[in-house]
Amino acid sequence: MRRFVFVPVLLALLLPSIARPGEGNEPNLALPADSQRYLPSAMPDRIVATPGQDAARSFAINWRTEAAVREPLLEIRPAVDSPDTGEVRQLRARTRVLESGQYTAHSHRVDVDGLSPDTLYMFRVAGNGGWSSWRQLRTLAEAGKPLTLLYFGDTQNKNLSHVSRVTREAMRHAGDATLALYAGDLVSEAVEDAEWGEWFEAAGDLPAVMLLAPAIGNHEYREENEGSAQERRVLGGHWQYSFALPDNGAAHPRSRDTTYWFDAQGVRVVVLDGTSALDLGSMEAQAKWLDTVLADSRQPWNMVMIHQPMFSPRGRGGSDRLRAALLPVIEKHRVDLVLQGHDHTYGRRSGERPGQSLPQYIVSVAGPKQYRLSDQARRSMRPVAEDTQLFQVIRIDDRQLRYQARTVTGKLYDDFQIRRQADGSKIFREISEGRIPERDCRHREATRGGRKDRCWE
Q1: Cα–Cα distance for residue pair 346/361, rounded to 1 Å
Q2: What is the dihedral of CA 327, 332, 334, 337, to 10 degrees?
Q3: Is the separation of the CB atoms in 225 and 103 below 8 Å?
Q4: 61 with 72: CB under 8 angstroms?
Q5: What is the pLDDT of residues 191-243, one digit of tens each?
Q6: What is the spatial distance between Cα 290 and Cα 76, in angstroms, rounded to a whole number?
Q7: Are 432 and 414 in contact (CB under 8 A)?
């Protein structure tokens, strides 16, 4: 029998750019630098649905095309079982110009209101002479009906290579999810279009078949005049033109477009901008706005999402300033969960008062960039994790919130329940059964690239 033992040698010669074990860190982008894969075209792409302020009755659709598109339309109707869609509602989009280093594209946004709660809709969007495929998206229900949502910490690096499997595993575990929350730092370079292309490809169908609500991270900003006295952070255009978010943010010019809130089936979700608060002078404005939004909430559950953590698992600066300004507001209004990212580790804890169980402050990471925990985090948080990609499934109804964190292979890592009593008070219960042991990378002295402050690059 003839054996083709020479094939591995030929592959090694033909594919010299592919990193092999022991040869250093894997590139951030899976595609070559000269790839044309993510250039805009006549056909719509990067289609993403985001919640309206009342997500049971409204949502928004955003998509991208080449700049030649002249008729940016959306068609929508309640989903039917026949390919004969019949009469559809047609809406014209608002178009904005997205300038990239490689191209000029058009970003299109349609806000769809007047929808019925808990109803499956089908929609499609127009390109230049053609339409996207029909998507199906369910509006959220009224408060009290069970809600399943997904929560992802930072994705940021190697999205196509490594984050895509987190997305698939999360959707497999929570096929009934209708909402996905992202804690910021979706990409590493705000202005690098290929990174956004890989992020959308890694997300797969998720942004078009369930509502997606992201918090902005520091990596969604770019540095202008870096290294000079005029250096400053500037919001990246891809963030502004990729997500059609509710226009109800904090009244400060540097946080108006990056903070928002919405009601989702008995949950008020409030999204903050930690970068603007820490670096751009909007901390006080965001704290006042948060106080007003939470005071006005009549929902049985309240969540806050912010990229930078209130209690840093890495012991990084900035957390003390966030705690001083925001924790009094969060705890005054008895928020249930504070969802965070930024530190590329996992850690969970309650507040600082003895015997306090709520809110639960959670830091997680979905992407492959993995830092190391501080000794303080090991003492004050439980559970914690290093070197572990995770996603979270949160199931909520009128009486119970059940939180589970799972590894990228689906193993149960963290689990708790909050029970809501008839008088509105809440009881927290830790659930330890079925969890795998805590993970760390203390056996690994440095990454392949030689960094000792990380488990993996």
Answers
A1: 11
A2: -10
A3: no
A4: no
A5: 999 999 999 999 999 998 999 999 999 999 998 876 666 668 899 999 989 99
A6: 34
A7: no
